[in-house]
Each structure stands twice: as C-alpha cells, then as structure tokens.
Amino acid sequence: MPDTGSSRIISLDAPSVLDLRNGQVEAIFAASVQDPDGVRQVTIYYDRPLATTLGSFSLQIIHGYSDDWTDGSHDYTTTVLPHNIAGPLNITHVVVEDNLGNQTTVTDQALRDLGVDTSITVRSVDPDTTAPVLTELVLPDTIDLRNGNAVAEFAASANDANEIGDVVIWFDRDLSYSFGTGGNPTFYEFGLSGLYGYGSDDWSDGRSSQELLFSSTNTTGTVDIDRVEVTDVYGNSRTYTNAELRSLGFDTSFDLIGASAPVPVTYVAELPDVITIREGQSLSVPLQFVGMTSHWVSYEYSVSAVGGTASASDIGASSGSGSLSVASTSPTTRSVAVPVSAIRDDFAEPTENAYLTVRLSGNMTFADGGTLRVIQINILDDNRTTGGTGNDTLYGTSAAEVLTGGRGNDHYHLTPGDRVVEQADEGNDTVSASFSHQLAANVENLILTGSANVNGIGNGLANSVTGNAGNNVLNGGLGADTLIGNAGNDSLFGGDGNDRLLGGFGFDRLFGGTGNDFVDGGLGADTLDGGAGNDTFLGGDGNDRLLGGLDADRLFGGSGNDFLDGGVGGDRLEGGAGNDTLAGGAGNDALFGGLGNDRLVGGAGKDQLAGGLGADQFVFTNRLDSGAGAAGRDVMTDFNRAQGDKIDLSAIDANLRLAGNQAFEFVGTDGFSGSAGELRYQQANGTTLIFADMDGDRRADFSIELSRQVILGENDFLL
C-alpha cells in the first residue's frame, strides 16, 4: 500500500541514568509519534548492547503488545540487569515503523534538536565482561529414521560469573526438524540448534537441554558439529571450533540412519491451500521453496482481514519480506516461517476468515506458474464449553458458564463466574484465572495470571498452585501440593501432606504445615515456617528467617544474613553465605555457619557446632545447653582463634550462690579452687575440654568439647 504520510516523532523519553549499583532496575522508554497510517512500533538503537532480562541487545523496541498506539503515544518498561558495563550508552538513531510497514529514521542530531538527551549514563559495579566456558556437550550417538520421524535430545552445560543465555550448536549442513515432540509437527530446515533455556529446563543450574523431532526426509550420513557458541545474559560469548571441541574431549558428530534424500517437484514454492487457526493461537506457516538448484527468490507477505468476514481486531496484522538464493547442482529445499496469529475475544461467534497474501519475484513461481497466492485463513471460535476425549483448551467468556473438559489433560481459561466440572481419573487438568479461585473437585493445577493481588486455593488432590506477579495467598489444602509464588510478596500455606513451597521473587511467607515439606524462599527476605514434620528449608537470596518447628528438620540459609531456628527435634542447620544466626533449639542438632561472621546457638541437647569461615560466635545461654559429662556435651568442630572465633558465655550466671548474672573467671589449665564461677580447660586425647564450676564444689556443672587441641586464653571467651 502507498504511504499516505511520513512519521514524525514528537517526543522521546529515556532514562538519563541507570544506577545498577544496588541491583537490577526498571527502565521506562516512551515515545509520541504522528503518522496518518498509525504506528506499529518505535525502535531505539544504541552504540553498544544493554543487558536486560529479555537478552542483551543494542536496541530497545517500544511495541504495542500490551497497549496500542491509538493515541500516538506508548511506553515500554524493561528490566536492566545489574552487571552491565558502566559509562555512557548513546542513542545513535530511532526508527519509526507505521502500520503499513513504512519506516522513518530519526538521527541522533534530530533527536537532540527535539530536546532529547541521547546519552544514558550507566552506573554499575563489577561489570560482567567475561565470556562463559563450555563444560559439557551432549549429542545423540545415532538418530534412527528407518521407521519414520525420530526424537533426539541435545544438551550442554557451561560456567559463567552470572548466568548462561544460550548455547548454539552449528551443524555442517541443514537438517529438517521440528521443535517439540507433539502431533502434527511442522518441520524446518536449519543449520543450527539453540539451547535457550525455555520452559522448565532453564539455565539456572548451568545446564539446559532441548528435544527435537527429526524428519525422516533427512539425508543419511554423519553430521559434524561445525562450531558451538556459548553466550551469557550480558552478551559475552565464546566460540569453540570442531577441533577445540575435540581437544576438550567432547563428541563432535552423530549419525543419521535410514533417511533418504527428498525428491523435489518441478515447481519451487509451496504454501498450504487453507490455514485454520483458533482464537488466541499463533502459527508459523511454512513457505517452502522446493527443489532449488540455481535459483534466487525474493518474497513478501501480509496478513489482513480486508475482504473477509473477520475484523482487524480478530487477526494479528503482520507483514514481512526477504530473499533466498541457492547455487547448487543438487536439489535443495528451503523454508521460511510466516507468522499468523488470531486474537481471542469474549464473544461466541461463527468461524470467520481473513487472508494471507504472498508475492514472489525472481526466477521462481508457484505450482500454477504464477507469482501471487492468496490463502484463506479460517479463524475458529474458542468459546467451547465441552471438551472431548483428548487434551482440550476451553475458554470462558463474559457470561458465566459451566466448562466440562472430559477425559484428557484439559486447560481451562476462566472468567469470573465460570464453573469447572471434572470427574475423577479424567486426566491432569489445569485452570488459569486472573482472579481469586479455588480449584473444583478433580482439578489438579491452578495458574494465577496477570498482576492483581489475588489468591489461589487447592483441593484434596496433590495440587500445583502457581501465583502471578502480584501479592498472592496460596493454600494447598489436603494432599502433597506444589505452591509457586513467582513475583510479588506472597504467602504460601502447604496444609496437610508432603508439600513443595517455592516463594520465587519478593518478600514471601511460607508455611509448610503438617507433613514432610520442602520450602524454598527464593529471592527476597523471606520467612519460612515448616510446622510439623521433617521439613527441608532453602532460604535462597535475601535475609531470611527459617523456623523449623517440630521434628527433625534441615535448614539451609543460602545467601544473605539469615536467622535459622531448628525448633524441636534433631535438626541440621547450615547458614551458607552471610552473617547468620543459627539456633538449634531442643534436640541433638548439627549447626554449620558457612561463610561470614555467624552466631551459633546450640540450645538444649548434645549439639555439633561448626562455624566455618569468618569470625564466629558460639553462644551458650544456659548451663543446660551443654552437659557436664560426655553424654550431653556440645562439640565444636572447627573453633579457630586465628579467624577471631569466640565462645560466648555472657548470658550464663557463673555463680549459682549469688543473685544476678555473674561473669566467669578464666583460670586457664589450673584446677578448680573451690570458688564458684571458675572456668578452666584441659587437653586430652587430641581434644580440648572446657569445664565450668558454678557452685564451688570443684566439680564441673557445664562443659564444652573442642574437637582438636587448642591453647585457649581469656580473650577467646565472652565471659
């Protein structure tokens, strides 16, 4: 279509300073544009990459996904990662694209003439400029295609100062495969495979994998790895050649067995005759160029509701162009993905249609010899209230409805007032809702969407309840549940059963309840309370509070200055990094401070205490904390004077004959004289024993064991 007028940028707002010294920050980019054809997006280009949670790019797009450009203005918020390189980040130019695909470039000088500050100051500490290191590469030995298409898994591990972004494996030739292993696959020709950490197998543990479905049309033979590129989230990358991979001991090839070369037809371009799509769905329609030898082709495509029964609000407008060329004596197939999407609404309506138009230029045509194809797109309504025997996706509408999925693993997208009906043993079903919801009987999973502060409640089954970006209250109820808070300051209640509670981002409160629970605070300063049962706690990042409760618990503080309280039972407490406080409580506990200057309070019972690195304090608040004899005596396994460790007895009244809190008198290795409040030590059998006489009878009323021989002085104690 002709351009009815050029774009004119009115204003552009970008942050003047990105201060990352205290962690990641949100940056808002906004623009106002005038264009008679409407605005699709504004792209801001920098003179160097900027790492965000979406990747490291030298550009920022202000698109209209969550909002539109109807009023000519739009803003976009992105989260900038903390370890970017400090210094000026300069805007080099801006490209405005209208709804017809026409683009207008605005230079940096033109922006400054509008009063736009084109330089962003980045402030950061410890910038990440180090490329990651590949530590593992897993390839299939053989992909057997003799019985048809076959699944193969690729995996890799890498080390990085922060986090891996992706690992790209480059083959020595194009291979035909489909992403995922589901039915009705669409195959594409690629000369590479990327491990991007999508879905459940992300890069958080330094490893990721990807399953691909290989087409039986692939040519038999050995596939060699040309190179592997490893990139972290800050855009630092390292490339390994085939020889370098071999020198590191990695496999660099795999075999395809039983495949035969494709037989090209006499024409060179293919498209499906009809495209069928359901509301809310996105497709990649393959535009295939078949049997290419000495050919070149340019193509352009557009999706429009013009001439169809659909409206512009029903179909995602898209357009694009590109070109391909091949110079070969062997017929080759190339494929281009054309995006088509349909927008979901809240109305029940008959099937609507729109059109995909594709035009070719060059020395290729379609099967009929023409260079133009118009493909009808049938848009199916998503307002189904009853599923079948398979895995169904059902959407509620603005009218309160009863949704029945039937057998299969069904997914319900609810609006307020909708009701789900499922019978027992009909599959593993999921409800998505943007409002507070309690799972109906026989429904297993709940996903809260959006960012509102809404709540989710399970039922008597083993549920999975996942929060949204708001502050959620999640209650598992009966059964062995999995609760995932995600972003926001969430409260998670496991209830009965052996539950898994994952706080995610934010300042969360997690209560395991009855049962042997696994409780992980995630990021933020969280409070973890296990309740009854043998629970396992992971504090994660932040200054967390871990409260063991009843029974034998395992508490791991993680990063931050944490407080760990074992409660009743024989517990294991590990502080991790940070200046932590560990309180064993009742029971025979094991306390390990880890990194940092920690306080270890064993409490009642025969406890094992290890401070780890740092100047630690071993605190005793009652003479009953450590028995007079070996049977009840606490053992300190790594007391280290050089690190500044101290034994704190200041809370104990050293003289039982006097009122108040008397301090101990350290007498070294001398024997007790009969004066109450004396503290002495002796070395025996490779250990050091500390004794306290609190009533003057020359017998120990309190004792501590150091697991190695140490020469002690008064300065080693807080008396």
Automatic annotation (TrEMBL):
- Record-level GO cellular component terms: extracellular region; membrane
Question: Where found, per UniProt?
Answer: Membrane; Secreted
Q: Name one GO molecular function term.
A: toxin activity
Coarse class of the protein's main subcellular location: membrane
Swiss-Prot/TrEMBL keywords: Membrane, Repeat, Secreted, Toxin, Virulence
InterPro entries linked: CalX-like_sf (IPR038081), Hemolysin-typ_Ca-bd_CS (IPR018511), Hemolysn_Ca-bd (IPR001343), RTX_toxin/Mannuronan_C5-epim (IPR050557), RTX_toxin_determinant-A (IPR003995), Serralysin-like_metalloprot_C (IPR011049)
A Pfam family per the record: HemolysinCabind
Which Gene3D superfamilies is this protein grouped with?
2.60.40.2030, Serralysin-like metalloprotease, C-terminal (2.150.10.10)
- Please state what the protein is called: Calcium-binding protein
